TrEMBL record:
Species this protein is from: Chitinophaga skermanii
Descriptive protein name: Uncharacterized protein
Signal sequence range: 1-20
InterPro entries per UniProt: Ig-like_fold (IPR013783)
Keywords, ordered alphabetically: Signal
Amino acid sequence: MFVLRLFMYVITCLVCTKLAAQSREQISMTFTQSSISIQPAQTVQAVVSFTNKSNDTIKGLLTLQCEGVELLSAEQKQIIIPPQSNKIHAFKIFAPNNLKASQQYSCRASLQSNEHSSVIGSATLPIYVNKQHKVWMIPQPQQPIIGSLRDTVYWQARIVNNGNSEESLQLNTNPLAGGFLVFTPVITFNLLPGHDTMLLVKCIPNQQFPSLLHPQVGVNLVDTRGINVAMAYFEPQVLSNYYRNTVNRNITQFNYVDVSSNNLFTNFATQELTVHSQFNTPRTNADLHLHGLYFYNTTQTALSDSYLFLRSGALFTRLGFIMQQGEAFVAGQGVTAGVLPNDHSSVAYTYINDNSNFLDINSKGYPSAPRVQSHSVNMEYSFSDTMSFSSQFVYKMDDRERVNGSLGSINFKFVRGPEMRVQSIFALSNEFDRDTKKNYVSAAAGLDFVGTHKQYDWLSSNYVSGDHYVGLRRGFKYFDERFGFTLNEKFRLGVRYLQQSLSPAYYEPLFYNFMPANDLRQTAEVNFQANITDRLRVVFRPYRFRQELRYDSAAKVDYISISNRAAVDVYWQGKKNGFLYLTYDVGRMNYEINDKEINKFWSHKANFSFTYKFFSVNGILQYSPYFLYEFAGKPRSYQYNNTYQIGPYVQKTLLKNHLYAMAGVQFLYQDIIGGWFTNYTARFNYEFLGRCEAHAFYTYMQQDYFKQHNLSVGLTYFFEQPIGRPTPTKTRLFFYRDDNNNNQRDEGEPPVEHVQMKLNGQTLVAGNQGVLKADKLPPGKYIAEVIPPNGMIYPPGQIVLHISKGEQIVHIPLKQGASIQGTVAILKGKYFNREVSAMGWQIIAKDVNNQPYQAFVSDDGSFHLVVPPGEYKLDVIPQQTPNVKIDIQLPKQKVSVQKGLPNLVKIEATANNGDQSVKHFGVAKER
């Protein structure tokens, strides 16, 4: 029986197989498309076609199976195909957002016969996902500059890959408007689809920073083809007394504790604790800075930029984070020790061991943190106010690049007023390659010469260094020659030639098959300036830009870019409030590769910034189609590179200067991201209880379906006494009116209230009964400035306090005086057409014994001196203003004042053109 059943089963299978084979021969089944290319988040229609070649009607069950993509139609459907006829079936498929371009997907259709339940036809449709480049760079809250132009600015940029393919990216950093030196190297990395990363950018202000209205730093991402895929900008918040009273206390006292939670709505949330304490006396300094971070997602802790600085007499030392800039830039964890024998010289030794933010795989296959160790000696000496020099000697052991380097440099500077300034640099270096065992000796030299004479001004800045130079400006050649001539008070003419050449050290060799051996860039410019009014200035700048690339230094030029352009700059200053800066740049560009003209096109650039009181708005426009030639056998690609960015900001101080609030929005469009990117920001700082400040920063970013919130909050407490200060003392100062001028407090002489005293970096005020408390001061000698109220004077101006342990009382006599009141009027010279204010000028009155009394001119040009009755000779010390020469006409006769009767004086000054090179070209960089 079992054998019979087995025999019948085999016969049935053979019959079904034969029928299925006959059916497959009678029907053909194909997709109308050989393949489908689909975008993420896109719905497409696919069509499967059936052809019945037999004379019988075929009935079957169609089954659809999709891999990776989603089927929007029914998975199964009954199909009836008449004899000798065709039939089609259409269905829809959807591609999710998470599809990766590196993988292949498919959709399979099969037809099962209703008669014998076997598959009589099948077809497969390959589905390819197009690459979608969606890389965004999201600015993070940046650390503001606090108090010093030597502070390092740290800024984080979050890179998000919302595309569907892995991206090989390179981060480049460049200051947009100058004002900063960037010390972040070129960073290359791969970013998987759906992933993000955080990169850190470091920079410090340079000498041009104070003269810039809105200094910015820009970073941009490029892919392996050199196409720009994302850009971002940040503008550091410079804290000033303009909107925060706390800052003044922060700068002078600099003792605070801050607890902040940053990036709360992201995957990079951190808890930060900052403690800063600074103790200063004339010969002693103690500066402590602790900055700790806790990362929530990795539960890791770290100390960042923490240090301890100590100085006693002529000796000083610093432990922790150190950054030194010279011809060689060194930064990291280390120790510095030095001596300051006097105010004109200093010598310091520094050792730095930097192994941060860098991981590598060693020869055994394990991760390691290669170090960069450096020893350096820095010396400075000033012969006088006009002449000084400095030198730097550095030895570096770089385990990352496997090279050792040594460098010695000498910098000389000579200044003779605004008429002439000369600065030079000369350096020698030696680089030893550990792998090739070769030594490379290189040199660097630079010379800057700035001067002015009558209507002429000039600036010459030159620098050259070798390709194996160990210093910061490696393989850099720079020549900037400018000359200007003032025609009259309304017009000025100038010319400029700029040439710079970069070596391969400025490129990233990982992404380029052909590294340029030389990149030469030249700019020739003529500028014509017209001063329409005192508040409106227009500059017209036609110029020519040329760039040459050689991939072999001995061969001919491989690539040439020539651009003939013209730019117009407009500057407008309102009477009281308001400022407008507008630039429009247009030109025609021509590309040549291997002596063949590739493309010509017009490009337009514009940017503006407008500020009025608490409102400001700025924008950027760039229309620049370009032609990109692929050297690695890829086809040429033509792409528009348009950028539009605009956004208003509002900042206001409220609640009697206790609340600072800022809100703004930026709208950014780029062809590379295919749409508009919107970024909303809001910030506030609220000061309360005299010593506390709450601060918060919120951002909301949106682009298509991508949305992100970010919030950072914190609390700062400003404490009065530094950490580690000695046991304080108790000192009481009594101010009284000395009516009989015997410098002793007699019966009936009343106290004087509201007397101000500047002592040890703080301003104290005498309260009830003229008593001023100067508690918790360590024993020692202090120099304090006494500022009496109106009608009273303290002839010495300053008092020397000898503070000792325990309680002590000091009586300070004040005199009742007369007053000298007046104004300072500034007249314009023949070729001078700008507004100059006398605010801050120092007015000095000397009596018959040459005892000086001083006051400062207010913003309306008036001044007020309180002096004892008598005769005085006046003198004026103006503030130094770049580009301006001041001639002052003083009263020829002495000024006589009597008690209770003010004497009115008018002082006239004439402003003329000074250093034209600074006036018309900006402050030159000091090397």
